[in-house]
Design brief:
Helices cover about 0% and strands about 60% of the residues. It contains no helices and 11 strands. Strand 9 and strand 10 form a beta hairpin.
Length: about 120
């Protein structure tokens, strides 16, 4: 069973920064893509950023230049550094990985962490 544990969310003022972490545990043979999604109230879940096993990454237009995704393959951990946060970034942030475990290749989700940007 693969589990994802997220941390780092919270309340921050506009212009502030937060760093999200997501650690995957369990029997994992390999991880391809790792990513962060977010869902604001009344909106659909959207991709924020994703990073492939060799380091290539892509970002939603709304966060380019402000957010940075990275990963530590030795720790099966993905990070999201969020700078210059805006009220529009308020959402529940979910970690997602595309991994091969005991049941083959599957997509796994974290439980979500709340990010609130407010003065």
């Amino acid at each position: 069973q693969v589990q994802l544990v997220e941390s780092g969310g919270g309340l921050v003022q506009p212009g502030g920064s937060l760093r999200l972490s997501c650690a995957a545990s369990g029997i994992i043979f390999s991880i391809n893509a790792m990513g962060w999604y977010r869902q604001a109230p009344g909106k659909e879940r959207e991709l924020v950023a994703a990073i492939m096993s060799r380091g290539s990454s892509n970002y939603a237009d709304s966060v380019k230049g402000r957010f940075t995704i990275s990963r530590d393959n030795a720790k099966n951990t993905v990070y999201l550094q969020m700078n210059s946060l805006q009220a529009e970034d308020t959402a529940v942030y979910y970690c997602n990985i595309d991994a091969i475990g005991m049941q083959g290749r599957r997509s796994f989700w974290g439980q979500g962490t709340q990010v609130t940007v407010s003065s």
